[in-house]
Specification:
The protein has 383 residues and is an alpha+beta fold. It has 13 helices and ten strands. The strands form three sheets. The chain has a four-stranded mixed sheet. A four-stranded mixed sheet has the order 5-10-9-8.
């Protein structure tokens, strides 16, 4: 998801933390917005009974220093919010890949959402609870900042914004925490895919309403959030469809067995001619015994020395075992550079190839109620 994130040189509770480039751009913007709107914030804080001498905070570099501290505190709060999700997800045995901060907040990336009944709701609700506790903690610290207007401003800002984050995240829209709670509760009575579709529909309605309100109130940031919620909700639904399609399938069920292969000593000129006879963009390279040596792409052959051989342009093949889950293969193909996986046994013998075409074929079968998937047995597992 975040291809240009900067990995920090430390971990929190064993979890890697990354900063997306958008975070590095938006942090100074947030600092500027906070610092430039101190009078408006002071007026807002008066409504909750916090009296701050706003004039004393507008001399020299003071507003910009307070703005930077407030922005850093806000993103630190978001990081703690995501840590709350991560810690509870670990309780359910879910691996947390990393936490990434970006311009819309933070994302805790899991290998998968917990599928135990109600587990997703528990993992999700911890986020707003964490933000609410941070708001309470900042509020309880007001007395410690008595007589220090700058510190009181920052603490009040963090208390109010964390309370706002808690409430906003409770909106029942995917991928917000409230949307995940809604889906998890629906999944207690409905199949997971159906629950996701319903939650996705609710998300679309909320996103449209947020967008309309943001447009007429001239709140561009809210429009951006609405656009994100709408697209992320649709992506969640599509991901649920894909997961449902591949549930229970193994690589051996979907791969193309006995694929066309080439030898390492095949002349590149001959190898390049394969583009006129087959639609593949590359081929596995095997030795005389059928053991996988690598992968060769036609594009590399066209750019290579015409007098060379396949082994001159061969790259390391991306491999997978035949008993691996199809969902794992889908993920690895998406993250890989070749667009296909070579299926090998424990000794390195090539058994087949799993490509995007094979996965698309399964998705089409899944979307065709009248279709009969090839090789599928009555027990729901391909033999």
């Amino acid at each position: 998801m975040f291809r240009h994130a900067l990995r920090l040189p430390f971990k929190l509770l064993g979890i890697p933390v990354s900063l997306d480039t958008s975070f590095l751009l938006v942090l100074p913007l947030f600092a500027y917005l906070i610092g430039s709107q101190i009078p408006a914030y002071v007026a807002l804080f008066q409504h909750v009974g916090i009296a701050i001498d706003g004039a004393a905070l507008q001399h020299g570099a003071t507003p910009w220093v307070l703005g930077l501290i407030g922005a850093l505190g806000l993103f630190l709060s978001v990081l703690v919010h995501e840590l709350g999700h991560a810690v509870v997800a670990r309780v359910y045995g879910v691996e947390v890949r990393e936490i990434t901060l970006w311009f819309l907040g933070g994302v805790a990336q899991f290998t998968a959402m917990p599928r135990q009944r109600g587990a997703e709701a528990v993992v999700a609700i911890v986020g707003p609870i964490t933000s609410a506790l941070l708001a309470l903690l900042a509020g309880l610290s007001w007395r410690l900042a008595a007589g220090h207007d700058g510190a009181l401003f920052v603490l009040t800002y963090l208390s109010v914004t964390n309370a706002g984050l808690a409430l906003f995240n409770l909106l029942p829209a995917l991928p917000l925490d409230g949307g995940r709670v809604l889906r998890s509760l629906l999944a207690l009575a409905l199949p997971h895919l159906r629950a996701t579709r319903v939650a996705g529909s609710v998300s679309n309605v909320i996103a449209v309403l947020l967008g309309i309100y943001g447009f007429f109130s001239l709140n561009l940031f809210l429009v951006v959030i609405a656009f994100f919620v709408y697209n992320a909700g649709r992506a969640e639904t599509q991901a649920a469809i894909v997961n449902d399609a591949f549930e229970g399938y193994r690589v051996r069920d979907l791969m193309t067995p006995d694929p066309v292969t080439v030898g390492p000593d095949m002349p590149l000129a001959q190898f390049a001619q394969l583009m006129f006879f087959r639609r593949h963009t590359g081929y596995p390279v095997v030795d005389d015994a059928g053991r996988l040596l690598g992968f060769a792409r036609l594009q590399d052959a066209r750019e290579g020395d015409e007098g060379g051989e396949v082994e001159d342009v061969m790259v390391r093949a991306e491999t997978i075992l035949p008993d691996a889950e199809a969902k794992e293969a889908l993920q690895r193909i998406g993250e890989g550079e070749i667009g296909r996986l070579a299926v090998v046994d424990g000794s390195g013998m090539l058994l087949g190839v799993l490509s995007k075409t094979d996965l698309i074929r399964r998705l089409r079968e899944h979307g065709d109620p009248g279709g009969t998937p090839r090789g599928r047995g009555p027990d729901g597992v391909r033999g």
